[in-house]
TonB-dependent receptor
Amino acid sequence: MPQFKPSVLAIALAAAGLGGAFVSNSAFAQDQQDQQEQEQTQVQQQNVVEEVEQQPTEADDSIERIEVKGYSRSLIDSINAKRYEDTVSEQLSADDLGSLPDVSIADALTRLPGISAVRTGGQAAEINIRGMSGGFVFSTLNGREQVSTSGSRSIEFDQYPTELITSGAVYKSPKASLIEGGVAGTVELKTASPLANDKAHTFTANVRGMYNDRAGEVYGADEYGSRVSFSYQGKYLEDTLGVAVGYARLDQPSVATQFIGLYYNGNKDVDGKPNDTDGPADNPANEYISEGFELQHLGGKEERNGYMGAIEWAPVDNFVLKADAFVSRFDSEAFARGFRVKLGGPSAAVSNPVIDGNAVIGGNFNRTSQSFTRVEIVNDDNRDYDEVDSYGVNANWHVTDRLTVNADVSLSKAKSDFRNGLLWSNVAEDATIDNPVFDTNVSINYLLNGLDLPDVGFNQAAAFSDIDRVMVSKYGIYPYVNEDEVKAYRLDFAYELDFGFLSSVEFGARYSDRTYSNDRSVFEYGNDGAFSSSEPPLRLTDDMATVVDWEGDFGYFPSYLAIDLNSALNAWFPNGVPQPVQTWGNADGVTDPQGYTTNYSWSVLQSGEVYEKVLSAYLMFNINAELGSLPLTGNFGVRRVDTDQSATLLENVGGDATLGAQYIVDEIGIINDLYAPTIKGDKYTDYLPSVNLNLGVTENSQVRFAAAKVMSRPPINRLAGDASATVSDDGKINGSSTNNPFLKPFYADQFDLSYEYYMEDGIVVAAVFYKNIDSFIDTIAIDGFDFKGNGFNVPDYIVDPTSGEQIETTNGVYTTAVNNAEGGYIRGVELAYTQVFTGLPGAFSGLGFNANYSFTQSEVESKTDLGGETVTQSLPGLSENVASATLFYNYAGFDARVSARYRDDFVSEQVAVNEQVVNFDGETVVDFQSSYQITDYLGVLFQVNNLTDEPTKSYFGNPSRTGTLQYFGREYFLGVTVNL
């Protein structure tokens, strides 16, 4: 049978001593069974080296030795890894720890075909694959499931520094041995394996300083930051014991200047004319009115400390034991200062309206006695402390020449402690008097300009920077803590066969136990829409406030007061700021010794835990056959998945002890006896078949085909049990839940077909794919819902308090999240081309080019009414056109590349406004990286991220209804690298 031979480039790499690097960087498969295949590949490559060395001199001279380094070498390693994979995948390889200068692994992944990113704070964070958002992407580290600080299943890749990641891969087609969970695909990251290192000892250190060129426009923002990293890999005891350690620190300024348009939650007839489109059912002449908008300076610091460690022991040839750990601490402290404009809703007086369709996008709004029209000066303080921990122990034992056993135990946990502190200030008629009065003479004039900054005007503009007019009127703290942890145990077997076209069989099982929890709490004092007599506003002094002017693109907006938060709070609360609490507040059935006057029961009802236990098993056969005279490899198999999911709930049973009501005491002593605690959930079983076939058409080309049923579980926070049911005086039972512990996974049938042509110095790939997704999550109202039949503790009757008669209860409406949104297809084309121009003369031989393009379309649509009338929008995460291109050059120690990443319009969650899914404008992000190797051990580097200062821009369904316009600035890096 013809063998699939390495290309001349692979032979040249092996002859140049790079074969070991190829092998160590091609180990991307999730399951440890692939380790055996990689070792076999290593033997084959070693045989190639030996054959080359044994050839006569004349033969040696006939083989061109191409020694490729730097970014070019990484691309070549990735090409070879892709070539020998048994699934449809994209590979990412780094020469050594710290060799990629990207801020996080997310930036590097976006240069792969069909992959794009959503930027948060100017940094690539969430990964989208083939038009699907991060919630459909499954992520592993060293083959193990990772939990996230995001509160969902979407991994925040900016918490994974490139300095500690040695390789990465994106699996677009699954196989039975891979952990289930990615309808879009699976991202696999790997840290160092010290025994696979080709040197006995390596040490890398990297120090970089950074500068943000927009920070100077933001009062109080830091302009400078730094990145420091080092790593060590060593082999001891005759290469039987390996040790790897690494540390990476990022200390960077967080800077942005932004306009945020708020959604359209009011309606009113502002022009006395009928609309061209239908308005609200009760008044088709109404126009939709935005809640308002915000203008803000953002600044602060982001600190990320990443740690990596591994110990690998191979006491005998057929056994390897490895323990590894990855730890990341990502802390950010940021401020947001500026204005929050409240237009005042339907009760405001509106003149000279500018109407687009049936939405008001401009006009003059004046406060009335019924409206809440006002301009708030905001000085917010946000703190987010994130922790990611991943630990694992793996044992790989070649029991016999045919049988391999692999065992793995792992723990992945994450914690996010987010505190949103808000300080509101409002304008007084005169802040110097004993009893200041809220200034109700408010007039706001504005005009949105689509995806450009708006025109604005305020009659109070001069007062915004006047310490004798502005008073602090409210302070609120809203902490949100979520924790996520998964323990997993895995046992895999691989047995070589001598049975026709089957080369081996793999089978195994995995059990995981996941717990997710969230806790909400709150503290509020004062009033953001008026001056409270019981909680009076704070008079500012000179040492508390500074006048801030807008600069650059925002320079025409009026100045305002930046308030020192600590000084203001110390003056307002001389005995210390009260701490936020998780509290029931003041309501019937509540004993409140603290004297709370506001009902904060949401803080407890939105807190709780989710439990998820998964037992999976698989059987997979590997293929090594011939189709005619052509080699055919691949695999086919099936994975069975048993899921047991549940969540804690608090059901409002009106204090009825017979229905399970209990006295619940929170941490400050508030007692509630209305609720019955319970746990609800579901169990289900799935079968996921898959097949992957690779046909070697010629020595340097192959065709891949893959088909599979895949699944992605709902976001873990959407399984939370915040359901509630109440009985009205007429006996009608109604209930609601924004989440649902009974949600099922997303399922899809998918097909992939690709052609890969491997040149001596590059690759050309063309691929098509098709996914048919069953359903998505939607929120619906179910009339006549069977509350008792679905486990709610509801009474059969209630007693009329006046007549004493029994009133039989009846089922009403239950509003909840369900898997009934209509599914549909996602299909697309991907093209990729990489060329290292090794055949060019002299210095031109270091030139290379890498480009890819994907076109994706889907019939799946969702609806949004955030912009007023209901309109359709595309599947979240889908950009029809995604492209990236990199021009790179390597010669005589100089390495440089310029990369551009483009994606057109897409739908995603609103920046800075949680839970709002909006449209984002297309964007092109350009980065530049360069380095020069002064000696074998010392190098310098320079890079610029976001070279063109590309902002992010969003809108509500229609580009005229501005969402967020956010400008981040360019980041410059200058540093030194030491390699020993």
Q: What stands out?
A: The two ends are 45 Å apart (CA to CA).
